């Protein structure tokens, strides 16, 4: 793909920025995307300062957020924006007219089916393997939002509270949204292009001006209604926005240097595969996957900064008075780069997609939650065979990682040096497994995927399966759970995050 010129890429969006595209040598659709996100960042500051709940009604905020969002998708995708609008309107029709006992099922079938049809048509309309004018991106985000809201409305209006988990009770929606609320939630300019998906109640709290104060009260375990939290001024997001924009800058530099220097396709270059020794190929694969991450970091960090700039994403305040604006963050770069297990890596990568999968599938599946979650994730990502190779490969690796942790880890906790050795080894193993697993995700097609796996001698597949077989015969520790519930790959584990508690001390004001 690197050899292709910008003229090789097709776009149905605006061509106003074609001179910029030609000057810098970037595809026009990427230039349009970046221009919209930069505009969204400025609009987000304006939205928070001049269209705040103190000065504007919720209807006005909903309408402005929706109009900006629709303008972005029309600018980026042209007439393909019709697909996005159609999906939202059809799902709203289901929400307001369908049987309350089945709205979640009908919405899931409709959204995933429509997304799949659009993804299939895109593969045939455009050259296979060339990711240009990817209008399926916003459709993927809207699929998450429409289905998650349908499940939460079903929880709030159909189920008894005692039948819900604590998380489901927290996010249950007890009345159907109005049309303007539904459009704003799905099409708002803060998340229309790249997400993240967030809970409907959190978004409505943000629009109506309750976002920060409600989270402060929610996080207060000793709230009596007289602790003064209603009188605390909103903490400023400027520090968080600045930090995330700096991350974007670093990631952009890395993308323009490292990513270009280590092309993924070189992993299946015939000369390289035939001439380079195994360790050289393994090392290059590791560094090429590492170099491919900055573009994802950039897109998600910028999207997070945009939401924070608008005043959305407040998570809480720790005991030291440090404010966190990571409520809807999609990545934890530190968690990704230091992950010592397959699960920890996934828990810190595309976090809000993990929350969605947990909400609509993992927590609700009566049996085989892990397998069903992987299947739904594969369907959601698209039709390229490489996606399915990735998720199929992830299953034995996940099972092997669980088996190692259950049967081996306990022997390395006797002292800090021993635990450190274990952590280093598991970190290296995790990074190599991730590299091996996600390579098909980037190669996309069957032939290069099989060529890569043959060049790697299928070693991770073999090792993972043997590990599961050998350790499954081992004696399980007393009291361990064997039903495999809730340690799944898409189960975010907030216990690994520092608990945020509200504090009246040292809260940074606007």
UniProtKB/TrEMBL annotation:
Name the domain of life this protein comes from: Eukaryota
Bias class Polar residues marks the residues at 475-485, 496-510
What is an example of a GO molecular function annotated in this UniProt entry? acyltransferase activity
Subcellular location(s): the record lists: Endoplasmic reticulum membrane
Name the InterPro entries for this protein.
LPLAT_7/PORCN-like, MBOAT_fam
Q: Name one GO biological process term.
A: lipid modification
TM region(s), chain numbering: 31-51, 63-95, 107-125, 245-266, 386-404, 424-446, 452-471
List the keywords (alphabetical): Acyltransferase, Endoplasmic reticulum, Membrane, Transferase, Transmembrane, Transmembrane helix
Output the Gene Ontology cellular-component terms: endoplasmic reticulum membrane
What is the protein's membrane topology class? Multi-pass membrane protein
Q: Per the record, which residues fall in region Disordered? A: 475-510
Show the PANTHER family listed in the entry.
Answer: LYSOPHOSPHOLIPID ACYLTRANSFERASE 1 (PTHR13906:SF6), PORCUPINE (PTHR13906)
List the protein's name: Membrane bound O-acyltransferase domain containing 1
